[in-house]
Amino acid sequence: MDARELRRWLEFYRDLGVRELRVPQAFFSHSVAGKIQNEAKDEKAGLQSTAYRAASGSFPAARQNEPKAVPFDAAVSGDPKTSAAGAIRAAASSAGAAGAGAVQPPAAAPAAGLVPLFDGGREGDTLERIAADLGDCRRCRLCEGRTNIVFGSGDPQARLVFVGEGPGEDEDLQGLPFVGRAGQLLTQMINNTAAREGMAVRRECVYICNVVKCRPPKNRTPEPDEMEICGQFLYRQLSVIRPRAICALGATAAKALLGAKEGITKLRGRWHWWRDIPVMPTYHPSYLLRPYNQNAKREAWEDLKKVLHYVYDEPPRPLSDF
């Protein structure tokens, strides 16, 4: 079992409500622990998503990341502080744990032979707490050139969340997401499309944030380690808001949420999953500002219509209708 598969299994059991697993004695051997650690180090840094629903709901039709066999068997005894437990935590962390994005230490020492699962979110988490934890962030190199951290804005109980790539110059100066030319276009897209479809929805009704909270130099694409560091705060934002759907704006946002290797042209227009929340990838508004992208504009508006109808139609309709 490599580190990526191990992390998926841990997330799978966590989403089923399992808080601890009994680990076979083989996991406590130095050879197995060393193998897991090496695989975790070798795995390319990046953000991954899962396609699992909580146990209370039905599973999505496409379960691309579903494990193929149960990796843990009979209960055994052992010391949870041995190298295997640390290796499992290291493997899960290096593979890019979703939600809080980091392994949380247990409140009390677990029973012998048990390895506690990392949390997907903090109990009682709020956007205010996330912003406080972010603080005057110096966790990566993006802090060196920023003017303001751009946390996010909008309705904290929004049914729809838009996720972009990162702040631009205007956003960096104002500390708010999507306030430049691309942001103005996004506002028009939301307001005008909703109005044409007979919905009383405006930009103020949604929540908007980015994968990274600081402006990359010269608006370059964020590096994988920057996305991973900031991703923990994005995941917590999404876990707190719990929207009915997410609209991923551009390839970077789609990669951060879905872990997909495909380009945005192949991903857009189809539903995907971040945990149990549907995700619709579409073009970033900055791409649509280019004069030669008329077809892309039409496709982006079609994508947005799907999202708005799925989120705001009353009575609610199943995802398969869109």
CATH architecture of the largest domain: 3-Layer(aba) Sandwich
Distance between the termini: 37 Å
Helix content: 25-40%
* Rounded Rg: 21 Å
Q: What pattern of helices and strands is seen along the backbone?
A: HEHHEHEEHHEHEHHEEHH
**pLDDT below 50 for ≥5 consecutive residues: which ranges?**
26-120
Query: How many β strands by DSSP?
Result: 8
In the residues, how many domains can be counted?
A: 2
Main CATH class of the largest domain: Alpha Beta
CATH homology superfamily name of the largest domain: Uracil-DNA glycosylase-like domain
Overall structural class, as computed from helix and strand content, comes to alpha/beta
The CATH topology of the largest domain, please?
Answer: Uracil-DNA Glycosylase, subunit E
Strand order of the largest sheet: 3-5-4-6-8-7
Give a short synopsis of this structure:
Helix content is 38%, strand content 10%. The protein has helices at residues 3-15, 30-42, 83-94, 127-134, 169-174, 181-196, 224-241, 251-258, 264-267, 285-288, 294-312; strands at residues 20-22, 114-116, 153-154, 160-164, 207-210, 245-249, 272-274, 277-282.
What are the main properties of this structure?
single chain; 38% helix; 322 residues; alpha/beta; globular; two-stranded antiparallel sheet; 6-stranded mixed β-sheet; Uracil-DNA Glycosylase, subunit E
Overall description:
- With 322 residues, the chain is an alpha/beta fold.
- The chain is 38% helix and 10% strand.
- It has helices spanning 3-15, 30-42, 83-94, 127-134, 169-174, 181-196, 224-241, 251-258, 264-267, 285-288, 294-312; strands spanning 20-22, 114-116, 153-154, 160-164, 207-210, 245-249, 272-274, 277-282.
- The protein starts with a helix and ends in a 10-residue tail after the last helix.
